[in-house]
Design goal:
21 helices; 536 residues; five-stranded mixed sheet; globular; alpha+beta
Length: 536
């Protein structure tokens, strides 16, 4: 494909997030019809081949990009009606996909290619693996069992998809616990400044969220055990909603495995992987347990001794070491050993500057040129949109969205979402990838900046790495999505991030840059405030 530069007009295919409920429903209906049409065409092939059977089955996902985007809205869109419609559309289409993988006529065409040794020998290793993968996907959807068992399998799989989505939505929910300033003793003023103030019976209290960012900070720094316990219990209550989902999901997975002829869900998963049996995994875990147990016991003895000393100093009875104690005492006992950047670096890590610095780092590391979108089309004013280009501006790569701040109706999770994968369309044009970096940090203000801990910085680095790996992974025609070759620079992303740009190195860069800016501000402030004195 001819490279396109920044100076040339081109269709960057920025995603339009102004969906209506009706549009989402229509997209789900159209995608379902298109998918079924592809299956019908494959099933009617007089002589199935790799090109007329396997390629269409591998390419279909790239042809429903609008639905993929619409079905992802449930994770972050501020309108609940849109979120509900998005979830419904995804469930509807995934149900269609499950039924598609259970079509015996399509499986016969796939199996014909799989058994055609003359053609299989001529395929590349990558294409051969693609055939094997698609054949296994159909087979594991019950194409070799009776129609009665297949009907039970379809019902179980559809229910499992619903459970997974409901579990994820429940996990993202968060609640608030009210504490006085005294009860938050040990928590930094910066963290408390980001909490909403609520008056209860005339007493000023701070609303502490069970959001993972706030939760981890309070559990690590709050000195009062009762504070940590109350927050831990509140967070645990949110998780209680998922117990029934987990129990049903475990039963369904076992049912599905049994219907397919496996002894367990684990056995069904291992097919096609390096590990071939559950016994290998159990043996590995037991060996790890044996090697780590003495270290774990020593660590718990050390933490317990510190808590006992605290209770004795406060004149209170020691009643045990609990889960809500672990974060706090791990921090207390290791504080003296911590690197300077972990103890004092927090002041240098304002989230806005960190985002800019990480973009600079990945630009240099991956050979990219990243600029803010001039006319961003986003779903919320807090979201930032960027265009990602090759460093020499010769080729557009994709769009990056940063949705870093918590808000109502947003899924409370730190992750990346692929809204659209890069691919070559049937007409030869390019579909550009789009990725969201999603986080739930408190939104900074002029008087209340959001500053990240060392751990938060590390986590954000991982998210950026995942996002750029997805943006850069596709090259040429990645229609064969299950076996597409990624760019070398993307496949090495984790190694580079871990080795060349480890978290301490990034922290040092941020600290140095922030220190220089601070010194400049102080000098400028002093210069404007002090009258100039002539030196004789």
């Amino acid at each position: 494909m001819k490279a396109q530069s920044l100076s040339e007009p081109m269709d960057l295919r920025a995603i339009d997030f102004n969906f209506t409920v009706e549009q989402i429903n229509r997209l789900a209906e159209e995608a379902t019809n298109e998918y079924n049409a592809i299956l019908d065409k494959v099933a009617k092939q007089p002589r199935p081949t790799f090109e007329n059977t396997i390629v269409p089955l591998a390419r279909w996902y790239n042809e429903i990009t609008e639905l993929v985007t619409a079905s992802g809205l449930r994770y972050f869109h501020p309108d609940k009606q849109i979120c509900d419609a998005s979830a419904e559309a995804d469930n509807k289409f995934m149900g269609c996909v499950i039924e598609g993988y259970m079509r015996l006529d399509v499986y016969k065409a796939v199996r014909y290619v799989y058994d055609d040794q003359e053609e299989m020998i001529m395929l590349s290793a990558e294409d051969k693996r693609l055939v094997e993968t698609i054949e296994r996907q159909f087979r594991k959807n019950g194409l070799q069992i009776s129609s009665k068992k297949r009907a039970l399998l379809s019902k179980a799989k559809k229910r499992l998809v619903q459970l997974e989505d409901e579990y994820a939505l429940n996990s993202a929910a968060c609640s608030y616990v009210l504490f006085t300033r005294e009860e938050l003793d040990g928590v930094s003023e910066n963290d408390i400044a980001g909490m909403a103030v609520v008056y209860e019976d005339g007493v000023e209290k701070h609303a502490v969220s069970t959001n993972v960012f706030v939760y981890n900070r309070v559990m690590r720094y709050a000195k009062r055990e009762e504070t940590r316990k109350r927050l831990y219990v509140a967070c645990g209550k949110e998780s209680l909603k998922n117990i029934a989902y987990i129990q049903e999901a475990v039963e369904l997975r076992l049912e599905i495995a049994k219907l397919l002829g496996y002894e367990s869900h684990a056995e069904s998963v291992f097919e096609g992987r390096m590990v071939k049996s559950a016994d290998e995994i159990i043996d590995m875990y037991e060996e790890l347990r044996r090697r780590l147990s003495k270290h774990i016991d020593a660590e718990m003895d050390r933490l317990t001794a510190v808590k006992k000393a605290d209770m004795l100093a406060e004149g209170r009875e020691y009643t045990g070491f609990f889960e809500w104690d672990y974060y706090y005492y791990s921090y207390v006992t290791s504080e003296k050993k911590r690197d300077m950047f972990e103890i004092e670096g927090n002041q240098y890590f304002p989230i806005i500057e960190i985002g800019c610095k990480l973009i600079d780092i990945f630009e240099g590391m991956l050979g990219l040129y990243i600029i803010p979108a001039q006319e961003p089309n986003v779903w919320h004013p807090d979201v930032e949109m960027f265009e990602v280009w090759e460093a020499d501006e010769s080729e557009f790569i994709g769009h990056l969205y940063l949705d870093l701040y918590t808000r109502e109706s947003k899924r409370e999770t730190f992750t990346t979402f692929s809204l659209r994968r890069g691919c070559q369309r049937p007409d030869g044009s390019r579909e550009f990838p789009a990725v969201i970096v999603n986080a739930v940090f408190p939104k900074p203000t002029e008087d209340k900046p959001t500053r990240l801990s060392f751990d938060n910085l590390e986590m954000l680095m991982v998210l950026f790495g995942q996002a750029f790996a997805t943006l850069c992974e596709s090259e040429g025609n990645p229609a064969l999505i299950w076996a597409a070759k990624g760019r070398k620079r993307a496949s090495e992303q984790h190694y580079i991030t871990a080795k060349k740009y480890n978290t301490v190195a990034v922290a040092k860069q941020i600290v140095i840059a922030a220190t220089r800016r601070r010194i400049t501000q102080l000098l400028e402030g002093a210069a404007s405030a002090q009258p100039h004195t002539e030196i004789r």
